[in-house]
Each structure stands twice: as structure tokens, then as C-alpha cells.
Amino acid sequence: MIDAVVVSRNDEAQGICSFELAAADGSLLPAFSAGAHIDVHLPDGLVRQYSLCNHPEERHRYLIGVLNDPASRGGSRSLHEQVQAGARLRISAPRNLFPLAEGAQRSLLFAGGIGITPILCMAEQLSHSGHDFELHYCARSSERAAFVERIRNAPFADRLFVHFDEQPETALDIAQVLGNPQEDVHLYVCGPGGFMQHVLDSAKGLGWQEANLHREYFAAAPVDASNDGSFSVQVGSTGQVFEVPADQTVAQVLEQHGIEIAMSCEQGICGTCLTRVLQGTPDHRDMFLTEEEQALNDQFTPCCSRSKTPLLVLDI
């Protein structure tokens, strides 16, 4: 864990603030790569993940952008309402679950709203390394689009294409942009679930391979839990068996019996709690694993996923 201080807080767009963080003792922060995020421990005890959106070579600060989402589970509201310049926060070292692919000759970056945060960092890194890319930034309006002026003044400004709902003439022609899939071209998308699904479904429909599609979700999709039932989990190392009732998660049940699994987002989007499955078939409800990885049924996210079989044996 790192003790950090909020160096500055700035309004970047309607409902979006940026927070510049530095080590409280003045030391350099751990290095990171484009697509990385940090865990931020908030004043009310919540832990939330925020993508880093400053240049990856900067070690004196981390910059995060936070949308004050009305549907928030409390994290963004806590930052917007309680955290000002000078505040102290505990943060984690960066982790990268959304890295740029090695060997890509060209990258297509798609950001929807606050999804610009990891995508902006990717643009910085790609530009600095001289790689070919273009950035498509979609938002409801110019007032809701953060960091636009920063991008327009950046060395890669000519790679930026903005698409605002209020300006129909700027509408994204997804078929035109994605109409020529190639093995060495990779796509990256981050933003609201519907936006991401549109981009990914369009790419697949145009012949893109799953291996060339990269995404990062900020929130899990709603799941109908009305038909959930109970099942059992077995701890592979000890043989202990515990029942998981319909209204509890595997992680919660394990914790009640003194078995703690590292967790962060608690929604199945960060992969922190990913656990190997030795026997049984998981009911995958995460947004972290790809469809191909889920089909293997050899790992799952106990923070949200359940079981299709009466018993899951876990490698713990």
C-alpha cells in the first residue's frame, strides 16, 4: 500500500473530476504501463479501481478521472463529495489487466465517456513509441467529454476523432472504421456497457478475431438473480465443503469460514479474485474473462459467479 496525498483536484467536464495523486513522503511512485489502474481506499471504507490517465513515464504522480455516476455504489460519490486537495488516501501499486498487445502494427482506440481514462494513457504511450493508431472518443456532448483540450493540444491531436451525440455530423461510422480487420491490428474499447457491446459486436460481425479485441469494463452488467439456488463449494486443499445460499456469494461464504480471497471490485470486472476450478461447472457472471476463457470452465470469479453444478471444487 502507498500513502498518497491529493496534490490537486480539477473539474474536467460535467460530472467528471480529475485527482492528481503523489506519494505523501515525496518519493517516486511505482512505474506503470498504459491500461493500468490503482485501487483507491476511500474515506468511508470502500475500495474502488480507477484507471491511470497520465503519461506512463511519469513517476512523480498518478492522475485519475472520476465520473460522479448517479448509479454509483458510493465510490465516485465519496471522491466527489469528500476528497479535496490536501487529502490523504491509501492506494495500491498499479496493476494492468488491460495492456497494449505486443507486436501490434496498428491500434484502434475507442472511448465512451469516462472510458477515456485508460484509452488516453494508451494514446500517450503509442504516440511516444511512434506506433500507428487512431482514437475515437464518443460522448453525449462536448460538455461531458473530459480531457478533450488536453488531447487537442497533444502531439497526437491529428489521430483524434470526436463523436458527440449533440453533433450528428460527427457520428461514428463503425462499419467504415472497422471494415478492414487484419492480424496485426488490435482494437481497444472502454466505456459504458452498451457502447462497448456495440463496438465489440460490430467488430465480430465484420470478421475481427477475438484475440484482437481488448476491453475493460467499469461496471458489471445487471444479472437476473431471481432463479438463483444454492450449491456447494469444496476447498481443494482441505476437503471442507460449504453451502452457498442463493443470497450470498462464494467469496462471502468462504470469508465466513475464515478463508479470505483477495478481492477488489466485487463485481467480476477486475480479476483480482480469479480462482482455479478443479471440478464442476461455473455459472460465469464476470466481465473479466473472455468468452473463450469462460468456456474452459477452469477458473471463475467467486465475488459474483455461481455454479451450474451442485458442487464446485476450488483450488484453494
Automatic annotation (TrEMBL):
Domain of life: Bacteria
Pfam families xrefs: DmmA-like_N (PF22290), Fer2 (PF00111)
Sequence ranges assigned to domain FAD-binding FR-type in this UniProt record: 1-101
Cofactor needs: FMN
Gene Ontology terms, MF aspect: 2 iron, 2 sulfur cluster binding; metal ion binding; oxidoreductase activity
Coiled coil: none
Gene3D superfamilies in the record: 3.10.20.30, Nucleotide-binding domain of ferredoxin-NADP reductase (FNR) module, Translation factors
Stretches assigned to the 2Fe-2S ferredoxin-type domain: 229-316
The protein's name: 2Fe-2S iron-sulfur cluster binding domain-containing protein
Organism: Pseudomonas putida
